[in-house]
User: Which sequence fits this backbone?
């Protein structure tokens, strides 16, 4: 989780991310950020996020995002 | 079929009555029958275009799902379906006579097939239901582009009569007619005159502003009619606009204007391209060589491709390509500059300036639609610096017309402000029955008396029908 | 209850607005009131004229009464097409059964709505003829047969049911006359005859465009057939007439076809063009628009000549011995003379 929060903070230094921050509303993540995030996650966690994973439900909070990463690594 | 023809209103009204008279499980069949009739009435023998898309979508959707269930690869079916339908769309875009709704239903069909391929949507077993998803008549005319996950269920579920929803729907239609007939169609002839004028300078600046007004009234008004009618049927279509002219940046504007197209492009072009293997690999390589900028390369490539697709979707001409690339360029510049302005966020004067600036920039880009030859467009842009300022041709608008337009703009802006501050105007008025009645009656009178429609007015089609 | 009252108010307001916005045809286009004026004069007419401007400007029913004691009415309207004439005849025969119906054949040259020329003018003529009709199956039929392409697209018959859909933008040209004639119009005609007192002599004959269509169209004949049938069914004698006039041309080819048609069906067909000299029409004094139409002096001459045919060949009786009819027609005659005096006075000043 700490790694993920660090990645997020690097994207938006002005926001204090916690594991329950609502990424799209409070975090102000736009589609550009999401694409950057995807490649950062791939580097950090080795999880390859596919296009069909890019849905709001997976990007609600860092928690749900982490759950996605775990799921993808298990596959 | 034009939304402002009395026949359309009569047809919709008749369908609405029948819709709530039949049992819930048959309601969708009423819509299907109505949609097919409407399509036939407009296209006649050219029904083949829609039929081809329908059949390929039906067959490929099923085949893809069967292959998935057996654990086989289904890429061939997907590619065949996408290829054929895109070819059909592009082929038609090249000709002048676009079959009704082809730009909208093709995107819906492709989205559906891709979703089935990804496994996020079930393939439709009932051909009738799939047909309705593609040819649902209100959105054939000017969108929105709905996702399968948004539209399939609401279209076919039973809807009990809900007086409030029906009333809200009809109210929204009336509001749409106001924007379309009183505002947009009143400016339309002036826009045409200014487009032909080409004197530049003041004439070009006025054109940019009036065209923005026209397209705003025409497109948001048309969507209000479509969404309102759907709401009366109990069907919630995705919103297509969220006070777009209150946006603070080009990127934000595109998240608030024609939202359904933006969402489609993001879902099926931007994201897939940006996370595709070659682009990711390229991104990694670029990062090693170029550092922070290289990191953004995938986003850049995806953005450019998305806007290429968006431009082409609007038309296969140079000016639409240019229009797409201009939008793309401004979005990327905005993205690069954004960190510089982060400290100013939230300051009132900054918000005001950015909204005004965005509005002006979008007006100037939008005009590109009107000039098939980009050189004319650039000449116009250049003349904004050089003038002449006084040479405005006679626009055929009386001072009364200008008054109506000004008042209309005030009303539209007011409604938008109320909506963004306090939410739905219809909801606010719902409890105050008498007031609501007379406001609606006044709106009806305004549409009836001030609207530009009927014999003697050129049948000005909705601008967005042509896409 | 409250809701119902508000709804009722709204409907009344809409109704009043509609009444205000429809044109009252008080200025130059008085023709717009011709069709609606019939209903106050329905019944008791031995002759009904049906047709275009060549009937409502070229025959004076008062003269027919004064000289022959024949009560008549003209159901004419500008550029009335044969399908409109048919439905007007159908409607008229529901109000009364005259002895003779006179149809001016000039309109046979228009075979379809499109062939009448400028379609926005056509639309205006449609409104003038159709808006004045009372609601009936005939009006509905007339509307359906008359609509232009543009009218169909914009709601067609609906705009005749709710004329506000057509005239919604007339608010910018409203005058006090629209208020004054909100409910009641002024009578503009004398038994359907629209009096013209001006004189504009014919100097040079108008050059007629060359004949392009030698045969009259199928649709025209079809409606004429229907008129013939209608008159047969009601026991009314149908007389075909070509009103006097030099322009636009009534070609010998067309004349021959109508003459043949009349002979086959044993109808009386009278072409008044060769008889102009006998009628006594002087194109330097009897026309108000340089030869297109007759003025009142010409219309009286034409009626005087045509009345003899009605009396001698159709055997119409002289009603001047009936005191009741006489009283009614004396009143009409007085109004006619008063109008003539007034118009001549206005013309002189």
Assistant:
């Amino acid at each position: 989780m700490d790694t993920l929060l660090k990645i997020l903070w690097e994207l938006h230094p002005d926001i204090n991310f916690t594991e329950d921050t609502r990424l799209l509303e409070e975090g102000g993540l736009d589609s550009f950020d999401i694409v950057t995030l995807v490649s950062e996650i791939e580097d950090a966690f080795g999880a390859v996020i596919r296009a069909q994973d890019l849905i709001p439900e997976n990007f609600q909070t860092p928690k749900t995002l982490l759950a996605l990463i775990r799921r993808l690594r298990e596959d | 079929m034009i939304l402002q023809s009395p026949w359309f209103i009569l047809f919709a009204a008749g369908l609405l009555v029948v819709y709530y008279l039949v049992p819930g499980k048959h309601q969708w069949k009423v819509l299907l029958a109505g949609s097919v009739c409407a399509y036939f009435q407009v296209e006649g023998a050219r029904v083949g275009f829609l039929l081809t898309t329908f059949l390929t979508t039906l067959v490929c959707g099923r085949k893809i799902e069967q292959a998935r269930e057996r654990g086989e690869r289904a890429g061939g079916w997907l590619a065949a379906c996408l290829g054929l339908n895109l070819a059909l769309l592009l082929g038609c875009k090249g000709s002048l006579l676009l079959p009704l709704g082809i730009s909208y239903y093709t995107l819906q069909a492709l989205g559906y097939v891709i979703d089935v391929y990804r496994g996020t949507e079930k393939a439709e077993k009932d051909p009738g239901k799939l047909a309705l998803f593609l040819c649902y008549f209100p959105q054939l005319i000017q969108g929105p582009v709905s996702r399968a996950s948004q539209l399939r269920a609401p279209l076919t579920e039973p809807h009990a009569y809900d007086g409030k929803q029906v009333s809200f729907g009809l109210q929204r239609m009336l509001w749409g007619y106001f924007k379309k007939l009183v505002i947009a169609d009143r400016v339309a002839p002036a826009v045409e005159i200014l487009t032909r004028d080409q004197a530049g300078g003041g004439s070009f600046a006025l054109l940019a502003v009036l065209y923005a007004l026209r397209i705003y009234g025409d497109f948001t008004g048309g969507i209000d009619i479509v969404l309102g009618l759907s709401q009366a049927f109990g069907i919630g279509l995705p919103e297509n606009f969220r006070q777009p002219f209150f946006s603070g940046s080009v990127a934000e504007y595109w998240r608030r204007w024609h939202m359904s197209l933006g969402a489609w492009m993001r879902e099926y072009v931007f994201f897939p391209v940006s996370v595709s293997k070659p682009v990711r690999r390229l991104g990694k390589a670029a990062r090693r060589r170029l550092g922070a900028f290289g990191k953004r390369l995938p986003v850049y490539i995806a953005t450019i491709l998305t806007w290429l697709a968006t431009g082409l979707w609007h038309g296969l001409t140079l000016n639409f390509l240019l229009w797409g690339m201009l939008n793309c360029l401004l979005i990327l510049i905005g993205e690069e500059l954004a960190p510089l302005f982060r400290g100013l966020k939230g300051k009132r004067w900054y918000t005001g300036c950015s909204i005004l600036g965005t509005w002006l920039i979008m007006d100037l880009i939008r005009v590109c639609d009107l000039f098939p030859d980009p050189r004319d467009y650039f000449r116009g842009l250049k003349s904004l610096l050089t003038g002449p300022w006084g040479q405005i041709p006679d626009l055929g608008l009386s001072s009364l017309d200008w008054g109506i337009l000004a008042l209309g703009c005030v009303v539209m802006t007011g409604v938008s402000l109320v909506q963004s501050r306090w939410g739905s105007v219809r909801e606010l008025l719902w409890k105050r029955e008498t007031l609501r009645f007379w406001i609606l009656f006044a709106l009806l009178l305004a549409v009836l008396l001030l609207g530009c429609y009927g014999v003697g007015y050129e049948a000005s089609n909705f601008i967005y029908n042509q896409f | 209850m409250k809701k119902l009252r508000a709804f009722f108010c709204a409907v009344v307001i809409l109704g009043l607005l509609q009444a205000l916005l429809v044109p009252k045809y008080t200025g130059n286009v008085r023709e717009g009131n011709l069709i609606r004026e019939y209903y106050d004069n329905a019944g008791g007419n031995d002759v009904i004229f049906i047709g275009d401007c060549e009937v409502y400007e070229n025959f004076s029913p008062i003269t027919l009464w004064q000289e022959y004691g024949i009560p008549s009415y003209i159901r004419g309207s500008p550029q009335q097409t044969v399908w409109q004439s048919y439905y007007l005849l159908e409607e008229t025969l529901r109000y009364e059964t005259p002895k003779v119906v006179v149809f001016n054949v000039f309109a046979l040259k228009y075979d379809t709505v499109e062939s009448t020329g400028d379609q926005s003018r056509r639309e205006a003529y449609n409104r003038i003829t159709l808006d004045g009709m009372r609601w009936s199956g005939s009006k509905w039929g007339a509307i359906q047969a008359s609509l232009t392409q543009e009218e169909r697209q914009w709601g067609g018959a609906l705009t005749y049911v709710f004329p506000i859909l057509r005239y919604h933008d007339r608010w910018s040209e409203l005058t006090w006359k629209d208020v004054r004639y909100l409910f009641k119009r002024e009578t503009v005609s004398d038994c359907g005859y629209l009096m013209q007192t001006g004189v504009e002599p014919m100097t040079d004959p108008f050059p007629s465009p060359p004949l392009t269509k030698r045969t009259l169209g199928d649709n025209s004949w079809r409606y004429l057939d229907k008129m013939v049938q209608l008159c047969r069914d009601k026991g009314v004698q149908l007389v075909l007439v070509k009103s006097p006039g030099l322009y636009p041309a009534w070609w010998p080819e067309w004349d021959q076809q109508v003459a043949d048609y009349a002979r086959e069906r044993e109808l009386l067909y009278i072409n008044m063009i060769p008889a102009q000299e006998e009628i006594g029409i002087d194109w330097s004094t009897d026309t108000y628009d340089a030869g297109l139409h007759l003025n009142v002096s010409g219309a009286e001459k034409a009626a005087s000549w045509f009345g003899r045919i009605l009396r001698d060949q159709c055997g119409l009786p002289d009603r001047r011995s009936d005191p009741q009819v006489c009283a009614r027609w004396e009143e009409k005659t007085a109004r006619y003379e008063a109008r003539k005096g007034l118009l001549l006075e206005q013309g002189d000043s």
The helical segments of chain A are 2-11, 31-45, 62-74. Residues 31-45 of chain A form the longest helix (15 residues). Residues 2-74 of chain A form a domain with the Non-ribosomal Peptide Synthetase Peptidyl Carrier Protein; Chain A fold (CATH 1.10.1200.10). Chain A touches chain B through 15 residues (CB under 8 Å).
